[in-house]
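Structure ticket #2291
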Amino acid sequence: MSAPNKSPKVLQIIDTLGMGGAETWLMEVLRLWHANGAGRMDFLATSGQRGLFDAEAEALGVRIHYVPYGRRSLPAFARAYRRILREGGYDAVHDHQDYASGWHFALAGSALPAVRVTHVHNPAYQIKMNYGVTLARRMTARIGKLLVARHATHIAGTSRQLIGEYGFDDPRFAHIPKGALHCGFDPGRFIGNRAAARAKIAAEFGWGSDARIVLFAGRIDQSPDPAHPQTHKNAGFAVDVAIAAARQDRTLRLLLAGAPSPAAPVLEQRIADVGMAGQIVFAGIRRDLDELMIGADALLFPSRGEGLGMVAVEAQAAGLPVLASSSVPREAVVVPELVRFRDLADGAHAWAEELLSLAAMPRDAAGANRRVARSPFAIGHSAKALASLYAGGQLC
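Resolution: structure written out below.
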């Protein structure tokens, strides 16, 4: 293991260095470590594809290895992976690909470093759906899980709840330290001039100064149907809630920020059919989510499941009230008075009434931001926990 006075060097295993929650967190850690020298990292991208953050990461001194991983490419992946580990001099490997991490560890053989972290991020129901398609995929997952038990030195989850949902509290994993390792961010980005932020949003979308702005943040599901197996962020349900709320309060506006999908035009037609075009808007991918949160009145977060739900934590850093699905882990709550939970089975009308109540709440954005800055979600605390883990420490 690393000497106490040596900043650890780690290989992060991801799919692509894109806009996912794990990747944006790792980029925050990378920026901080580049500034303070507390650690170093490289990436192995198993998609074999470049991502949104690659250029910035490389400018910060990171090496990104593009090594496709799949059934047909296993021998080539194993050779390349072992070479990368031997040549990189890594103190730790941190694998963010759930049960597949066990396969990765096994393929590395004797080249594995002393610290080997399996980190789960995605809702457990998604993993079960992805692996449950065929018998071969179910067997692949089952063996991968057993290989985690054999090779991992630590098991981390974006929430402690998620670790149990993945089955890692089974006795066969009792010998492996495990715990929540929350993604972190800079809370300072979410404090600012609310009046100016509101005015900017209203001007961009042609809304009046009296608009009550509700934000939805997350990629738009492939299907508009809330009951569809692949529905995750639940944009279709969010639209139904906004329609119900806007019928009670004509000033209500919903801004959906996230990557579009084939479901978006279907939902836009649903919105137009009830005469609310322009009041409920799909804004696509946004780089100004912090400003949107500062200027909005509430965050609508009706996900069918979450590993944690970092967008809800970011909202609290902006002092923004959150109405979340009961499927979201309670570990996402830092400022309890800002967060309310409802079951999706309660229906759109019950959600709409709760949403309007939340959106009318007074806000203490500065106080909420200070509380998030003291929490494990603050990037300084998160990065410090990572460096300690890689140097041979334990999960909290």
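Closing remark: The longest strand covers residues 9-14.
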